[in-house]
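Researcher: For the annotation table, I need structure tokens for Glutamyl-tRNA reductase. Please keep the output clean. Sequence:
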Amino acid sequence: MLIAVVGLNHRTASVKVREKLSFSGISLEKALKQLKTYPAIQGCVILSTCNRTEVYAATTEVDEGLNAIRDFLSRWSGVDVSEIINITYCHALYDAVRHLFRVAAGLDSMLLGETEILGQVRAAYLQAYDYYTTNRIINTMFQQAIAIGKRVRTETGIDRNAVSISYAAVELAKSRLGSLSSCSALIIGAGKMSELAAKHLVANGVSGIIVSNRSFDRAELLASQMAGKAVNFNELSKYLETADIVISSTAAPHCVIKTAEVSHIIERRHGREMIMIDLAVPRDIETGVGELEGVALYDVDDLEMVVDRNLAERKQAAIRAEKIIEEELSEFMKWLGTQFVIPTISALKQWGENIKRNELRHALNRLEKLSEHDQKVVCSLANSIVNQILHIPVTQLKNYALTNEGHLYTEVLQNLFCLNVPGQKTTKKTPNANTENNTGLA
């Protein structure tokens, strides 16, 4: 049983194309069951996110498996097979397993070390399992991938350092205030940056969110998504007084928060620290605010420095993660190699057993009046000869199963002895008896 994957992502295909090749809900169940009908596909999982679609399969033969996946994707999406080939990447054997392990670890994501992809890998596997489209090889591979994703994040901390401006803003607030569970936040502006910051604040347990925007309708919309409260823009001063965290990201051409205004507010806060984060360009908050006692002010440049430093740390963590993946990959391929050779060894032993049984029957029929003792001696001799002949190839095959070329030696042995192994297909080549002897001997 071999592993293959065909996929596309934000680097190989546009959003327009990725939409045609996305799977979710009821369509995913139908797609998985349709893919499983291909004779070459013994088990499959479809991983579909906004940035990628990947089809993983356990297959009896790599080329047939890859062709089956491409044909399935073409029929499903209406995109011609030739175009599917142009916009997809494919991996087989070691590379296919390594790719899945790297995906689960967040090393193949648009955002290095992202956490969300691990949950998406787990969900994709569990859905395929529930729809009965996986098999033992797929189950073991995905279970190990999920375990590796957890191990990488635990041992390297690759996902601990913020590498987006909005996330860095929240992490910076946490570093100053500690737990956010007793903190209130004021979001000024209702654009994408404000929305992301609000989501990170909620995820980190902030006690309450207030949203203010010149367009009150947009403020209400964002506040409703965060279970927060929308307030009019002309009431900012009132809510600045109670906010522990202020994140501002408007499109205003001038500052919307002035030093004098904040100075009066600070007097009424009785020493409680205020974290103010200005995500706007041009800036929303006057620089003099940062000089006030009890106020910590950060702008985009400050956050970009944090992001750059954190990204460098993630890259170092990624190097350690790659080592973990190679260790785990080696162990998985050893297991897979043994799974591949065990049926072949059984078939080889059965081949020898059949020959022994037939030849013993013929020999004993020709030998007359053998005593029971003599029959046992002849049978023992036959057993010993077959066992000794098969001992070296069986032992060697077990050893090769633990190497990168294990599946190749298995296929060669199957071809040499014309073994029919259920669930495994090899390319049998019959030597041409008429081929000229190229050794130069007459």
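Researcher: And a one-line annotation?
Model: The chain has three domains: 2-160, 165-303, 333-416.
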